[in-house]
Amino acid sequence: MTFRNALITVLLAALAGGLGVWIGGRFLNAHPASPSLHDMVHRQLSLSHAQETQVAALEQDFAARRQLLEAGMRRANTDLAHAIEANETMGPKVADAVRQVHEAMMALQTATIEHVFAMRAVLTPEQRVQFDKKVVEALTATNE
Questions:
Q1: Structural domains in the chain (count)
Q2: CATH number, domain containing residue 118
Q3: pTM metric for this prediction
Q4: Three-class HEC string of 74-112
């Protein structure tokens, strides 16, 4: 494989990694045009005290888990960069590094979706309707 092909692979892997981080961040970071899922849950769903307590614990756990997973993505991207730097072609070491990046991205995406479902489980059926609508909006937004 040529250097050009390896570079394209790296760029695609970086783009995919960025997408994983974006999906994770999309649910927790405030957005000026549209309140985040976090904001909507706390400000618009009229959570009971028990729900607030449960959601706060879920968010705290996820924040720690997300931090670890994002660190794993950074390590995988660094390993990929070193593999590309050390190899002339798209050989087994580079392919393995790409696989590690993909696994790290998938772990973050999976953890994010698990967190969404965990929060959803705390909600009443009426609250879930609003919550689900916000999740669908976040995942289908095209004006970013």
A1: 1
A2: 1.20.120.1490
A3: 0.68
A4: HHHHHHHHHHHHHCCCCCHHHHHHHHHHHHHHHHHHHHH
